[in-house]
Write a structure and sequence with these properties.
Its main location: membrane. Pfam families: 7tm_4. The chain is 76% helix and 0% strand. It is mainly alpha-helical. The chain has one domain: Rhopdopsin 7-helix transmembrane proteins (Up-down Bundle), CATH 1.20.1070. The radius of gyration is 20 Å and the shape is globular. The relative contact order is 0.13.
Length: 267
């Protein structure tokens, strides 16, 4: 998707620019822990060093925060395109698009530094077994032998704030979009737009539902098995579905992909 959007001139639009950024974030999100997870399943030893645990945790936190923010930016772009088409050029100018992406990465790096720094600064004196598929903040917190309450007070409110603000903005934006779609006179246009928006909303609700479950509750051993299952959705399944839902359901992307594939075939 990234290569296709960069190579095809007709895809050089704000919407596809944001979709390419979303694809980059998804790639980083899914590869932050999945290779290590697969390697641990294949290797006889599944031990990991403290640094080898903190670094993937920081990367996943950064990409997860960026995912929330980019989804909100995509919702903003669709809101501007459908609800304010005459002002779309100024509401999604190239300069503003770059600024939004830069702000997203800055906020995600700051959030990752705060959350990961709070976790890594705690004393760990045993046990040293993580009851999870990878080094995530909630299961690692369970291993701390110091006062976890202070760290949780630093970690969970910012995480909850990011999730609450982004999901509220995203859902409100799609609410306005759905209202605009319902006012369309063409039933065929309504059907196509509603199909795309409902797919987006289903994916958004699945992502925010799983991440909210993981990062807005204090650590608890009773929810360990549930957390394992939930983590698979937002680290593997959702990043895999995002390109299919956001890009391959787009007629411009499908046309560009068809032209690119036909161009590669021998004459």
């Amino acid at each position: 998707m990234i290569s296709l959007i960069r190579a095809e001139p007709q895809l050089h639009t704000p919407m596809h620019f944001f979709l390419s950024v979303l694809a980059i974030v998804d790639s980083g999100f899914s590869t932050a822990n999945t290779p290590g997870l697969l390697g641990g399943l294949l290797a006889s030893s599944q031990s990991v060093s403290f640094a080898g645990c903190v670094v993937p945790m920081a990367l996943m936190t950064r990409h997860g925060t960026a995912e929330c923010l980019i989804l909100a930016v995509v919702a903003y772009d669709r809101l501007a395109a459908l609800c304010r088409p005459l002002l779309y050029g100024s509401l999604s100018s190239p300069r503003l698009c770059v600024q939004l992406v830069a702000a997203t990465y800055t906020a995600s790096v700051a959030s990752s530094a705060l959350l990961t720094g709070s976790v890594s600064s705690l004393p760990y004196c045993g046990p040293n077994i993580i009851h999870h598929y990878f080094c995530d903040i909630p299961p690692v917190l369970q291993l701390a032998c110091g006062d976890r309450a202070r760290a949780e007070a630093v970690i969970f409110p910012p995480a909850a704030l990011i999730l609450l603000c982004t999901i509220t903005f995203t859902l409100v934006s799609y609410g306005f979009i759905l209202v605009t779609i319902c006012r369309m006179r063409s039933l065929e246009a309504q059907s196509k737009a509603l199909s795309t928006c409902t797919s987006h909303l289903a994916l958004i609700c699945l992502f925010y539902g799983t991440t909210t479950f993981m990062y807005t509750q204090p650590s608890s051993r009773s929810s360990t098995e549930q957390n394992k299952v939930v983590s698979v959705f937002y680290t593997v399944i959702i990043p895999m579905l995002n390109p299919l839902i956001y890009s391959l359901r787009n007629k411009d992307v499908k046309a560009a992909l068809k032209n690119r594939c036909l161009g590669l075939l021998p004459s």
